[in-house]
Recover the amino acids of this structure.
DNA sequence: ATGCATCACTGCAAGTATGCATTTGCGCAA
DNA sequence: TTGCGCAAATGCATACTTGCAGTGATGCAT
């Protein structure tokens, strides 16, 4: 949370603009409502042109919540062991961290208020899950290809296919949590909340196979 | 395929307008390209106002492909047996039929050309899968609640939760197919193409559990 | 310090999409 | 057949979103 390295001026101004837009968007949305807050007003409040707004955020809702594009760090990927027996659990946890790097804003209380008042804002989480799954699929695919057990693959399926489906399976408990009525979009998904879903997944898999 | 009952004039005109819009959209998109075909042009060609276009289609792409909103018929749901041992397979097939009722247009060859030339059009299939999953989840939830074995549920999870996760699991092979490089968006998913994915799913589940 | 390449920002234009109020035309019953 | 209720269609206003071209500030090498 401390300003670690003195970023180059260009980077710093970019971060400032991002922050100003997010701050303006969240603040205005809380004061006047989401639908009443126009991109034009947000941009004006942040001191940039409306066109610039869309250079920072795809959609208005992302600015209000302070969402960034998911990114998969190589370091995160390297912590995966494809030979461990809880591979699905590992991938689930990785998916969570990737999808939740998306959250950039700092003011949790305000985000909570906003989502409580405008539940539609939370819908964007599913989009980020889709993006996270795509990123992680590619990463896991590379890992499996390097592993002798997985590289061979089964009948007609290679590591790419196995990775894609593994990640989809691992995504199920997360999607399950996201769509739960009592899902907390602000806190996201922790080991605590993911655990029961993974258990249910395994219970069902045993029951149906 | 025969014009069964002489629909009331109102219904018939509605169907005609739908057809005219779809026909215009597909035809114009094929001639001049998707991006070059504006909603205004489609509406003009169909003889309605641009505003009316959006009373029939959420997005331009749906009009071009002739996509309708997914619907779950009670009859389809009643064919599900929650006690059979291939419940996941049953749900997968149901999901396919629900998501693919979305396809309404008739000219398969033209749709094939369009999707081949503009692959982005096929992206909408995932959206329809999400809607189909939501519909089917509700339906399966009702079925499970009536079944003594499922109604009890596991630790802390009721039939609603079980249904939601079962449907997500059943959706995995379909999502897998949709995201495959050689997926054919026009033919959709048949028993032939779904089978191998279900097999891979079961193989992986065995390997990881 | 100078010059150059890059990147952020901007204005403009076009197109997509939605809400609201109004009009038009079908369906139905007196 | 006349009139009423309702659904479809429309016009209008507004907002979201993207592409493109141009401008200016930043970063960097000389």
């Amino acid at each position: 949370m401390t300003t670690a390295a003195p970023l180059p001026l260009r980077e710093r101004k970019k971060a400032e603009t991002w922050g100003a837009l997010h701050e303006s968007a969240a603040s205005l949305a809380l004061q006047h409502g989401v639908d009443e807050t126009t991109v034009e007003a947000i941009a004006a409040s942040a001191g940039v042109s409306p066109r610039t707004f869309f250079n920072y955020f795809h959609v208005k809702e992302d600015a209000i919540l302070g969402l960034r594009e998911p990114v998969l760090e190589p370091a995160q990927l390297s912590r995966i062991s494809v030979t461990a027996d809880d591979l699905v659990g590992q991938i689930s946890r990785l998916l969570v961290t990737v999808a939740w790097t998306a959250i950039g804003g700092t003011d949790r209380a305000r985000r909570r208020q906003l989502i409580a008042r405008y539940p539609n804002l939370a819908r964007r989480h599913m989009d980020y899950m889709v993006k996270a799954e795509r990123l992680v699929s590619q990463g896991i695919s590379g890992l499996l290809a390097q592993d002798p057990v997985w590289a061979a693959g089964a009948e007609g399926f290679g590591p790419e296919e196995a990775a894609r489906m593994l990640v989809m399976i691992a995504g199920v408990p997360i999607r399950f949590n996201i769509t739960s009525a009592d899902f907390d979009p602000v806190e996201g998904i922790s080991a605590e909340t993911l655990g029961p879903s993974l258990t249910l997944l395994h219970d069902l898999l045993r029951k149906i196979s």
Q: What stands out?
A: The first helix of chain B runs from residue 9 to 32.
